């Protein structure tokens, strides 16, 4: 009989263990939890197993000693069995029978393990979310993580959308805290400024992110950040949601000068980040038919470009700003180049959205600020032909949309009204009305916040702007555009910087460009945080105006490549794009240097007449200057006067810009730069000289000043090498 019982108990123990494992796996797959209150159920079979094992042992001992067992003997075993959950074993009951039937040793050991395990799991089930939260929080902080601050809608979206992220809110009510834990948000509610936490955050690399709807004041959160960071040169960053004007105040007023080199405070606008991603991925030049351009990438005179915004909320407002700045075209006017302005049509049902600083800039302030200038007035940024309150479902609106699409115009529709399904429905109607009447492209905002999973319908139709793209680490913290802008700036600065370590680092990883360069750079910086600190400090030293100028310059690369019939693409596997020689053949610039990191590359432009040609590189440089003009005009800069420039003349040098006063003499036409260069040359070299001859040759002084033209070329001169280094390839469109 005992042989049968020892086998039965072992089988029962294995079944109970299997059920516990099955329940844990099922709970994890369904609820993403390893510990569940379902584990309470398994305490009963585990208790019964150990109870009947004790009963068997007690009966064996009674038979051996010829004792008679009564009710209270069996009843007493209940408390004895419960003691097993507290790691107490009655060896006197177990040893005799186990000595005779050795399998009982295994039965008792497994039964005790099951009792202890089910007991621990049952207790843990009441605290499972707290335990999971604690383990995750400790692990994330030890590895370096994003910490999003404040219990608000944007913070919750970011925390849910990014693995390894912690939501931090020290004033969070307990009920709300547990609600978030059950929703699988890793959260923390003790003070950020506690010494214990500050010490942990100074180790490794951490990013603190604060959205506007968190309700913190900028100055307040910056003070908290500095208390956490202390004076240590740690890789602790603060990312604040703020628009361009707020960013300027934050950088200039809220960050003390003595700490500015180690602040690591950056600002972002999530609507602008979405707009940047859109402009990068869907540049208008990528979709315009090639027959709209001549062989030099200049727009033909009988062709027009329309951009139509259906709805003008926060997203389309930011898209309009960037599109007006980035989408600049050149056309040929005889043997000269001129601007071919994009026509913008803006429709919205809310009139207040149609009154903003950019429309005022185009329609009023531009003529006022550039009415009287010493150098030629810059060309207009764009044409705003329609900006009116209208029912987009009306016959009038639909008629206007249809009239815009014809064989000699390309129309770029951007629909962003309210809900995803409403936008998609309107886009389908629009697509039906204009199909077959001319070239066009329709883009539709789809947040997908309700998981509608909208997908592209056909080649004329593209969805953009999903929340999971915007509320992501790659977009807010590790944006490719920011990386490329910094690399462009740093590679140049490293050549003249007095920090030998930084120059040595760049030289170490420079070499021939390849797709692994960016990962190699990150690895080097990870192993050498001092160099990373130096790189960030170099970027932080330049003012916000110039930082954004670097960013928008990089953002324009996909547009210019689109004019060349090329596209930008992330390299995957063994994928290859066009080679360097193919790129040069399309770009057609005899002064292009293969050594893209040569700080003297722009001085190789030694024939002044080259800048006034109409070949592809000249067309693209003209477009770059128009884009640059647009950025500074939209940033409220005015043209610097000759009188103001003369005041800066000292030791043979003359400034042509004053960032503090928002003055920049280069805000002029392409031909106006020639007047500026000749004026500076006359003032800086009054003794006279050869200057520039009819054949385009220049003396040393004039060639230095001609860099005002050369700067417009350096962006595309270097792009092939830099994009390869960041893991991109250039492919035919």
Question: Please, could you describe this protein's structure?
Answer:
With 733 residues, this protein is of the alpha/beta class. It is 52% helix and 12% strand. The protein has a six-stranded parallel β-sheet, with helices on both faces. A six-stranded parallel β-sheet has the order 11-10-7-12-13-14, with helices on both faces. Strands 8-9 form a two-stranded antiparallel ribbon. Helix 11 links the parallel strand 5 and strand 6 (265-268). Helix 1 (2-31) packs antiparallel against helix 2, helix 4 (91-100) runs antiparallel to helix 5 (103-125) and helix 26 packs across helix 30. The protein starts with a helix and ends with a strand. Mean pLDDT is 80; it is low at 257-262 and 511-515.
SSE layout:
Layout lengths: L1 H30 L11 H23 L5 H13 L7 H10 L2 H23 L2 H16 L2 E4 L3 H9 L3 E4 L5 H9 L4 E2 L6 H7 L3 E6 L7 H12 L5 E7 L2 H11 L10 E4 L1 H12 L22 E7 L3 H13 L2 E5 L2 E5 L2 E6 L8 H13 L13 E7 L5 H10 L4 E7 L4 H15 L5 E6 L15 E4 L2 H4 L2 H4 L3 H17 L3 H11 L6 H11 L1 H13 L2 H12 L1 H7 L2 E5 L9 H8 L28 H19 L7 H6 L9 E2 L4 E2 L5 H15 L15 H6 L1 H19 L2 E5 L1
Parallel strand pairs: 1-2, 1-4, 2-3, 4-5, 5-6, 7-10, 7-12, 10-11, 12-13, 13-14
Antiparallel strand pairs: 8-9, 15-18, 16-17
Helix pairs in contact: 1-2, 1-5, 2-3, 2-4, 2-5, 4-5, 12-13, 13-26, 19-22, 19-23, 26-30
